[in-house]
Design brief:
Blueprint (H helix, E strand, L loop, with lengths): L1 H6 L4 H11 L10 H12 L14 H6 L10 H6 L15 H14 L3 H27 L2 H13 L4 H5 L4 H19 L5 H19 L8 H11 L9 H26 L13 H20 L19 H23 L1 H14 L22 H20 L3 H26 L5 H11 L4 H13 L3 H14 L4 H13 L3 H14 L4 H13 L3 H14 L4 H13 L3 H14 L4 H13 L3 H14 L4 H12 L4
Helix pairs in contact: 3-7, 3-8, 6-7, 7-8, 7-10, 8-17, 10-11, 11-13, 12-13, 12-16, 14-15, 15-16, 16-17, 19-20, 20-21, 21-22, 22-23, 22-24, 23-24, 24-25, 25-26, 26-27, 26-28, 27-28, 28-29, 29-30
């Protein structure tokens, strides 16, 4: 089919020579495995340095602090609750395939970040191979399939999805999305038992895509469009036959949406931008579309957090650029429809899969994200690969100098993409590197600056942390979270007089902030106002009953008052929420040791060491107890 698409003014003899020149050796002819080997290398070699990276950003909450990834006993919670249900915080993120994948990784690798990164790289390679097979089946040409898959493997825009463990959802979604589409394509000539097996395989793969990420609901629409406007032999196929191929996908999606809304209270995440007017949503969507297209074409200044600014007027440059991109997309769609109809489906794929992330009301604080392009870029790579092959067919008929220049230009792009991917991967090596590199590109990303301050604070770099907090508060004096974090920094330095007014102000700005209540309780406790301190701790527990830190703080308060019974109850409550929380278990063991309950204390410390063999506090406590057992 692509031979026809490429034909244009180039005779078929030239195209034949072109394919002979591009096919490397006899091993690549008649078999896909040589091509697959090259694609796997393209997908894995640029990402080899991610194996040196650690857990960063959301990885701590979603992996390290997540009890669901420790045991198969949590399978029901994994598949029936939100991704953050173990924290007790409201959330509509539903990622059971992600959490179950983390569970499998933990069982194999423990908490070794290299193991988790290895799985992400392997998933990326699997997506690239799946793209090759889908493209070859759709367009009937190995060269186009290889070109599109190679571009997808090397495009720097995919670095965030592969290098960041928490972004594995986009890899999972895209793999199962493409696999579902491959089964759908195979239904075209399937009969009898094979047809039945393909239906079950298609629906099973689609279910996994839905359980990976919400964008999967766009697949039935793409299948319907392809069936009626692009599949070969469509004019000779009955309507009933066409419907039978994609209606099951619609039915499964129709069952998923209400179930998801019933279980989690809604389909989209709780957004910071619900107050946008309809006009602002439309204009912002246009601006975002233009920004995404530009990142695909020019993947520079890559960044983990882009500050979103809503568009309020059609005359704003971002909105105008977005509108222009829409016009160009329509023009390109019309042009391809007339000259290379199969490839126009790539533009439809790009638009349909990108559409769900263009509405700011459907997204969290990070409205624009590079990882959102992982699935849509499939369509982009189809069109780009076809364009480059057509350009090559034109150049091939010219002098050798033109051919050498074309090869040099293409090689330069490949090398630059590979270099940018490798260097971008290092941005994710640790939290300090990620946050500082992000702030260089996006200095107004206050949430990233607060995260950097917290890292400095945890490392004992108090002056650097205070500097970052002050930078944010100078711009936004009403940032309750930042006020609370700065107050906690002062508490750690015993600067209670400075911390108290910050917390009182933060409580007035956001009375439902759990951290504010906890920190204010600590201040009241230091002031000897025990009743008010206990009131704040209980208020925090009422706001976040499944927050482990709330119960461990409350336990510490009771222990200091000599009420070991209530302290023990608070610690056991914390461990009922997360039995793998080492802080709570060590505190419980220490409480038992103080009360002379040596056997119970030893059991708690041994339990910690079973989960965390290198835990220093548990090791020291256990050695102390075994050397000088409490009578």
């Amino acid at each position: 089919m692509v031979g026809n698409l490429l034909r244009g003014r180039a005779p078929m003899s030239i195209l034949s020579k072109l394919k002979d020149r591009l096919e490397v050796g006899r091993f690549f002819r008649g078999s896909d495995w040589g091509w697959i080997g090259v694609l796997i290398a393209c997908a894995t070699v640029p990402y080899a340095n991610t194996l040196l990276n650690g857990f960063v950003y959301d990885d701590a909450a979603q992996v390290l602090e997540n009890p669901y990834v420790r045991s198969f006993d949590y399978l029901r919670q994994i598949f029936t609750t939100s991704v953050l249900s173990f924290t007790g915080l409201p959330s509509r993120y539903y990622r059971p395939v992600m959490t179950f994948g983390y569970l499998l990784c933990y069982k194999v690798f423990g908490f070794s970040p290299a193991g988790f990164h290895l799985v992400s790289v392997a998933f990326h390679a699997a997506v690239v191979c799946m793209l090759f097979f889908v493209t070859r089946r759709m367009f009937g040409d190995r060269m186009l399939a290889f070109g599109a898959a190679t571009m997808f493997a090397l495009h720097p825009i995919h670095s965030e999805s592969v290098a960041w463990i928490a972004a594995v959802t986009d890899l999972e979604l895209t793999f199962f999305y493409l696999l579902t589409f491959w089964f759908f394509l195979a239904l075209g000539d399937a009969k009898g038992r094979r047809s039945v097996l393909l239906y079950f395989a298609m629906l099973g793969s689609f279910a996994l895509a839905l359980l990976s990420k919400e964008q999967a609901v766009t697949l039935p629409f793409l299948a319907m469009v392809y069936e009626h406007f692009y599949r070969e032999g469509r004019s000779a196929t009955s309507w009933a036959r066409k419907f039978s191929r994609y209606v099951p996908l619609w039915l499964l999606a129709a069952a998923y949406v209400p179930l998801r809304m019933y279980s989690l209270g809604g389909f989209v995440v709780t957004s910071n931008y619900l107050g946008l007017t309809r006009q602002e949503v439309v204009l912002s969507a246009a601006a975002l579309a233009g920004q995404y297209l530009w990142k695909l074409l020019w993947p520079v200044n890559l960044c983990a957090f882009y500050v979103f600014g809503k568009s309020t007027s059609p005359l704003e440059p971002a909105a105008m650029v977005g509108a222009l991109c829409g016009i160009l997309w329509l023009a390109a769609l019309w042009w391809l429809w007339k000259r290379a109809r199969p490839l126009s489906f790539g533009l439809i794929w790009l638009a349909v899969t990108l559409a769900p992330v263009l509405n700011p009301k459907w997204l969290g604080v990070n409205v624009f994200a590079e990882r959102y392009l992982y699935l849509p870029s499939v369509g982009f790579c189809w069109v780009l690969a076809w364009g480059l092959l057509k350009l090559w067919s034109e150049v091939f008929s010219r002098r050798n100098a033109w051919r050498r220049a074309a090869v040099a230009a293409l090689s330069a792009v490949v090398l630059l993409w590979t270099y940018r991917t490798v260097t971008r991967n290092r941005d994710w090596r640790d939290d300090v590197a990620l946050y500082t590199d992000t702030l260089q590109t996006s200095p107004d990303a206050d949430i990233i600056r607060v995260n950097l301050a917290l890292v400095y604070q945890n490392q004992g770099l108090f002056s650097q942390a205070e500097q970052e907090y002050r930078f944010v508060l100078d711009k936004d004096p009403g940032c309750a979270e930042c006020l609370s974090d700065l107050a906690w920094l002062y508490i750690q330095q015993a600067r209670y007089v400075e911390a108290k007014p910050l917390l009182i102000r933060a409580a007035s700005l956001n009375p439902k902030a759990v951290s504010v209540r906890l920190n204010l309780g600590v201040i009241y406790q230091k002031d000897g106002m025990l009743d008010r301190a206990e009131e704040q701790f209980h208020a925090a527990a009422a706001l976040a009953p499944k927050n482990v830190s709330v119960h461990t703080t409350l336990a510490a308060f009771y222990e200091q008052q000599g009420d070991h019974t209530r302290a023990e109850a608070a610690l056991k409550r914390a461990l009922s929420i997360n039995p793998y929380n080492s802080q709570a278990r060590i505190s419980l063991g220490a409480l038992y040791e103080t009360d002379g309950r040596a056997a119970e204390a030893i059991h708690e410390f041994q339990t910690v060491l079973k989960d965390e063999p290198g835990n220093f506090d548990a090791t020291v406590a256990l050695r102390r107890l075994k050397t000088n057992p409490t009578p």
